[in-house]
Amino acid sequence: MALDGITETIAHFVGTFEITIEQARLRDQYEEFSALRRKAEIDGLEDPTSIHIKADLDIPSGEYKALPFNFLPSQPELPLPQAPDGPVYESAVILSGDSAVSQRFVPDSISGPSSAPELIVLRPETVPLGSAMTFTVQKVVMRDNDTVGEGDFRDTEALIAQGEEVLDLALSFHGVAAPSFSLADYKSTEMVEALAQQMLTPLSANVDGVTVHQFHGDDALGAIVNGKYVDEAPVWTDILPEFHQQDEEGEDVAEAMLPDEWDQSKDPEFDDGHLVVTGGNLAINAFSASVGWVDAPYIAVGGQAISLTAISQVALVSDWDVGAPGAGSGTDVIQSSKIEVEGRVAPWLDDAAGTSGQPEFIVVDWVHGDLVVANFIKQVIDATDVDNIQTEISAASTLYAMGDNEMFNVTDIVQLGSFYDLIMIDGNMISVDMLYQTSALMDDDIISGGMPGAMTGDDENLIMNDASVKTIGEDTHQDLQQNLSDAMALEQTDMDALEDALLNDPMFAGMEQLRVLKIDGDLLQVNIVEQVTMMLDQDQIDLSGPNAADTEVVAGSNALLNDANLTKMGVDSTVMAADGSYSDLLLHQASLIDVPNNEEITEMTNEAIAAIMDDMSMPQPDAALALNAPSTDATTPDDGLQTMLA
Fold first, then answer.
1. Which of 180, 418, 521, 557 could covalently link to 243 via disulfide, CB atoms 3.0 to 4.6 Å apart?
2. Nearby residues of 251 by Cβ (< 8 Å), 6 or more positions away
3. Bridge partner list, 529
4. CA dist 358 → 345, 347, 484, 487, 510 (Å)
5. How do residues 159-185 score in pLDDT, each as one tens digit?
6. Torsion of the alpha carbons at 218, 224, 229 and 232, rounded to the nearest 10
7. What is the pTM of this model?
8. Closest CA relative to residue 444, chosen from 560, 279, 286, 561
C-alpha cells in the first residue's frame, strides 16, 4: 500500500535513527575487541619501545599576524526583463527552428499572418475552490501560394487584402456581438442583462443578397437547417465533395486518381492520365464538451436564475469563376442547428417514491464564495491557397498537386462533478452558452484549358456550420419557500440549526440521507465557443499543349466545417429563485452566397476568355477586382458581396 508523503518521511527518519544507534553500538564493541587483541600481542614484550615527542606550542605575543582575507567583489545585478507590451495575462511562445523565444502576445495580432506556429498561454483569473475553468485557443495559419510558369497573374497580396475585407464583412453579419472571454463579465448581472437584451433584438444585416433566419425561445428547439425544420440533420461525411470521399476499399479518391508510379508498393507503371489540383482543401474546427459538474432535484436561489443560450452562424461565399462552359465549381452552404432538452428524473428519487419519514443523515458541502464551471474556446483557421499555373501538358502522365491541404483544430472536454439533493445559492445562478461560428470562402478562379471537374458535378465546394446544445434535465420554476429562505440565511456556525431545518422539511420526505451544497456566492455555468474558418482559394490556371483538353482540373472541392457540440448533463430540477427566473434561446443563421447564374457562365465563349487572359495591361489590383466583379447587365439580387467589394 502506498504511503502519503508525511508518513513516508517519518518512516525514513525512524529508520535512519535506528541505523545510527546500531553503528554506535557496534563501534563500541569493535574498539573493545581491538584493545583486547592489541594487549594480547604486547604482553609478551619485556621492554616495549617508548617514543616521546616534545613540542613547544607557545606562540609569543605579537610575532605572528593573522592572514589577510578580502571578500570577493559582488556580482553585478542582472537586468530586469522588459515590461510586457500586452496584457500580463496573455503571452506567446514562438517556436522557430531549434530555438524557442518567449514574447508577449497582443490580442489584435491573432487575426494577422504569422510566419511561425504560436502557442498562446492564457493565465486565467482566480478560480474559486471547487470550480473548473478552461481556456483553449487554437489557431492554424496556412500560406500555400504557388506559382508555376510565367504569366500575367493576379496580384496575390491584393487578393489577400480582399479576403480580409470579406472576413470582416462576414463577422458583421452575426446577430449578437462577439462573446467576451473574461469571466468577470459573466459575474456582472448588468452584462448578462445586456446580452439578454441583444438576444431579444438581434441584429439583421441590411445587405442585398444576405439571407437571415432567426428563431426565439421554444421556436429554436429542434433540428433546423438553413432556416427550415428537419427530421434529420445532414451528416458531414455523407455530403463531402467527391474529392474527399472514400471509395469502397477505404482509399481516398484523391489518392486513387494519382498515377501508379506514386504507389511504391506496386511495380512502377505509368498510366495515361493528367491531373491538376489547385483546390481540394479541407479545414475543420471541431469542439465537443460534456459537462456535468453540479446539479440537484431542488435548487434554491437567493437572487436571480438566468439561463441564456445563443447560436449565431454566418457563412459567406464568393465563387465567381471565369472559364469555359462548365468551369464554375459551385458551392453548397449548410448551416445546421440542434437544440434539445431531455428530461431525466433523479434515479435516487424514484427509489424513494412512496416511502415516508424524514431523512436521518445530512451532509453539507460549503463553498465560501462563487462556484464556477466555465469553458472558453476559440478556434481559428486562416488559410490562403492562391495558385497560379501556366504550363504545357505534353507528357504521357501529368500531376500538379498545388492544393489538397488539410487543417484541423480539435478540442474535447469532459467535466464530471457531483449530484446533490439540494443546492442552496445565496447569490445568482447564471448559465450562458454561446456558439459563435463564422465561415468565409473566396473561390474566384480563372481557368483556361483543361477539363474542369465541375463539368461532371464533382468539384463543388462545401461549407458547413454545425452546432448542437443538448441539455439533459428539465428545469421548472417555482417561488422560493419561506422555510428554505430562512435556512439559507443561516451561517456555517449555525450548522445544527441548518440541519434541523432541512431534515424536518417535508419536501425531502422519503430520503434516507440529504446531500446539500451550500454556495455563499453565485453559481456560474458558462460555455463560450468561437469558431472562425477563412479559406482563400483563388486560382488562375492556363493549360496548353496536345493533352490540355484531357487534363482534369480540380479548382474547387474545398470543404470547410465548424462543428460545436455541447452536452450539459444533469437531472430534472425545481428552481426556486427569490428574485425570479429568466431564460431565452436564440438561433441566428445568416448567409451570403455570391455566385453567377449558370446561364451567365454558359454565355461565355472561348474568345471572350482568351481576351480576358490577354488583356492584363491594367494594374494588377484593379484587374483582380474587375475579373471578380459581375457586368452591369448580369447584376442579380445575389451579388451584394461583389457590389460592396468593387
1. 557
2. none
3. 377, 435
4. 20, 18, 16, 17, 6
5. 999 889 999 999 999 999 999 998 889
6. -120
7. 0.71
8. 279
